[in-house]
Amino acid sequence: MRRIKVKCFRFDPSHEKQGKYKVYEVPVEPQMSVLDVLDYIYENVDASLAYPRCNACNRGLCGDCNLKIDGKAQLACQCSIESDIEIGPVSMRNLVRDLVVRR
Amino acid sequence: LSYEKYETDVLVIGSGGAGLRAAAAAAEKDVDVTLATKGKIGSTGSTIMAGEDFCADVEVDGKSVCDLGLAGDPDDSKERWFHEIVAQGFYLNEQNLVWAYVQNAPRIGKELVDSGVVEGMEPGSTRALRTTGRGIIKSLRGAMHDVKLVEDTMIVDLLLSNSRIVGAVGFNVNDGTLDLFKAKTVIVATGGFHYIYTVFCGSRACSGDGQSMAYRVGAKLIDMEMITTPPVIVYPLKYRGNAFPIIINAIVGGKGQLLDKDGTNILERYDPKVLKVVASTEWDKLFLSKTIQNVVEQGLGGPHGGVFFTMKDVPSTLLEKAEAEFPGLRGKADLKEMVSMLKKGDSFEVAPCVEYCEGGIKINEKCETNVPGLFAAGECTGGLWGSNRVSAATTEMLIEGLIAGESAVEYCKGIADLFVPEVGQVDRVRKKVFRALERTNGVSPLHFRKRLQKIADECLSPTRKGPQMEEAIRTLERMEKEEMPALCVSSTKSRSYNNEWIEAIQAENLLCVIKASLKSAFERRESRGVHYRSDCPRTDNAGWLKHVVIAKESDQMKVTSDPVTITKIRPPGGTEDYEKVIMDTIKTMENYEKFW
What's the rounded Cα separation, in Å, for the pair B122 and B55? Predict the structure, then answer.
């Protein structure tokens, strides 16, 4: 299985001054979404990652997983992953933690 | 520790169609209404996913459809619809609830037509009004301006005083703080329990919170063994959980195929006429799952535990016609992708996955539970559909929401003041919430959940097996006693949107509904509707025309039974082979062919 590098923004404003990117190596298969990759990281690599997980509809309908993916705001569940990517919160304003924004 | 405090007449939990309709109904009567949801208003839960956003329908009897000025069927009637729901629910339906459903459906239909979210009829149907889940939500948003909305707040427990509901405690997922809600009455509208499985057609948000918190304050859960599991995509990953294949198959008249790993059509042995009727109704959900599981258990399934859905032999003109009739198919990227995959002759691996939970909190026709002050609406309730849902759940959520809202207001009138919860209750909830966060080592909530899901995948499948369920119940009881108190959030102690912590809090709800479901399925020593047991393969009307009831008694989960409420149709007697009952019922439906 192919492995890619996922650069993921990490920041806990409650006790950190600024955020940083952390790189995860993830195996990917064809027709996998960015949300699938985040689920993979959470379940297999690093459960401390905060990303909009618990209510996600996985259909591009609820809008919860709107993230900045390679610099562009898009829904993680609708975005296919092919090669190395960078994932950040959709905005720094109202950041709760890591990739989660109060909206 | 301080709490954010809310005082309200009516507290509604959940913001899908049932919750919003309940809040709207109550707010209209000039009482204070607060609505708490674990996510965002309107986008949390399974409502928005109805019909995969291109063909959600709301059903109304054909005659009343004519009265709405749409193309219905003047020869249809509420009585006829009632009869179909009860006969195809295999007579386990609470008939008072079914009557309330068919009676109130026209009112709900009219509301939706009036708010402009109905786009005519679904092609070929004289009952189904075309709308979308998001359309339904939109029609209710306007009524929310008088409702206090509390988002990102998961209700953890209900509060009691003198055995009646006086409020609830909520957990804010964004900052880990607790909210104290004092309320005269509470309406639970939290949806199904899809999340007990690894793959599900529904929202992750649906983790049985409402059923479980109601159970903890003494509410009865009924028919928890009844779970509808249509074939749903398990691969490719990106479309996992999507019910698109069965919907598109219905649209093309059941012409799609299900192939095993060797390319053999697994439905070959069935009469094409039966397959056509099945495909174009809710029946495909019951009918196909058992066949698929059988094929997979014979080792003829695909690498992800399913079989392959394809339309490679269907003329592409049929798919083009579908796109013309269902413009939604061209509107959304994933739907477009899936249609083009089918056009190319590609397949999806599909397996039986939960789509709807027939069972849930026991209610009467006023949506009252057996706990004073507690009402429930929508998929979290049980009884309406008996052992097989064959009409629209969207109609259900709106009707029950409306009734629950109105009943809660009536109830409020008899309550003069807000009561104070019994001493120690709030503190116990706080301790429960923080226990897993404060521990330094223990069981991973994430692994705990995955093991629960594995048990549900294996034992609450379309074909159930008595001895396997019995063993699973013992495993669950051990996990509940030994592991649940030892759950530990270890990856981070952050209180801000901590997924592991959220899972730790939800764990008891998941465990509660799986256990309730398994205990009910084990207790029901027969096969009926969506509940099929290989060790009890007969439908036994003499012995089992009754609800299996789950309720808490001195801290134990007790299994008892309640009679079915019969108001109009007398159920048949005797016992009969399950397969024969199913085939005979489908054959009677062919008489109704003109409807489909």
Answer: 8
Name the pairing type of β-strands A66-69 and A72-75.
antiparallel
Residue A55 has its nearest CB partner, among B204, B238, B446, at B204
Reduce the DSSP state of residue A96 to 3 states and report it.
Answer: strand
Residue B323, number of CB atoms within 10 A of its CB: 18
- Per DSSP, the residues of B47-80 read GGGGGGGT-EEEE--HHHHHHTTSS--TT--HHH
Beta strand extents in A1-103 (DSSP E only)? 2-10, 20-28, 66-69, 72-75, 85-89, 95-97, 100-101
pLDDT tens, position by position, A71-95? 999 999 999 998 999 999 999 999 9
Burial B507-534 (b: 16+ CB within 10 A, else e): bbbbbbbbbbbbbbbbbbebbbbbbbbe
Rounded CA gap, B214 and B169, in Å?
A: 13
Instruction: Check CB contact under 8 Å for B446 and A47.
Output: yes
Helices (H), B372-529: 393-413, 425-438, 445-459, 466-478, 499-523
Are A48 and B134 a contacting pair at CB < 8 A? no
Q: Report whether pLDDT(B113) > 70.
A: yes
Structure tokens at B199: 């793959």
Q: Give the closest of A31, A47, A59 to B49, CB-based.
A: A59
Tell me, yes or no, if B340 comes closer than 8 A to chain A by beta carbon: no
Check residue B591 and give its pLDDT: 52
Which of B431, B438, B559, B557 minimizes the C-alpha distance to B487? Answer: B438
Q: For B12-40, what is each residue's pLDDT tens digit?
A: 999 999 999 999 999 999 899 999 999 99
Report the alpha-carbon distance of residue B440 to residue B486 in Å, rounded. 10
Chain A touched by B204 (CB under 8 Å): yes
ipTM above 0.95, yes or no: yes
Which amino acid would we find at residue B549?
V
Query: CA of B461, closest CA in chain A: separation in Å?
Result: 23
- Provide the H-helix boundaries in chain A: 34-40
* b/e code A13-29 from CB counts within 10 Å (16+ = b): eeeeeebeeeebebebe
Query: Does the distance separating the beta carbons of B204 and A58 come in below 8 Å?
Result: yes
Task: Return all residues near B132 (Cβ < 8 A) that are at least 6 apart.
Answer: B50, B51, B53, B54, B56, B117, B328
Distance CA B116, CA B243 (A): 26
Beta partners for B278?
Answer: none
- Cα–Cα distances (Å) from B449 to A46, B521, B529, in that order, read 16, 21, 28
Touching A: B residues 483-542, CB under 8 Å: 490-492, 494-500, 502-503, 506
Which parts of B142-192 fold into alpha helices (H)?
none
